[in-house]
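Kindly review this record before class:
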Amino acid sequence: MRSVRMLRAGALVLVWVLVAAPASAQAPAPLPPAAAAPQPLSAAELDAMLAPYAGAPPDALGQVLDAARYPADLMAASAWARQPAESRGEPNPAWLPTIRQLAERAPRTLDYLTQNMAATAAVGSAYQNQPNDVWLAFGRGPAPSRGAAGSATFPGPGPTG
């Protein structure tokens, strides 16, 4: 009998809270809208973004664009590549193959990419969201020279990378 009274009292309190709650109480904030797709970059913005890579061979740029989508891994690979070879061990197997290749074979390119991570991340984001437009912007630039890898403008992959 006592548990029935307690149950009724609890129900009455619940009804009172639901019905008699002050109207001024704030409703919970609505959930934020789903993340909108980023605004596409214009051809001029892409041209400016890719200008530093204008002299790169397309295959080297392909590696850079692929790797630039993972800025945290680029930073980790750069730190790994700066360690003495005898003490650094193997590269992280979770890294993208292009990031491992940059770390092992082209540490200068990796350093170039990590000097301005904001710009590198922006290139990676553009490539993630507008891959065709990025390649079109690269094609609008000057023709890559065959000796561009390892140049001062773009220290691309090479034996001394």
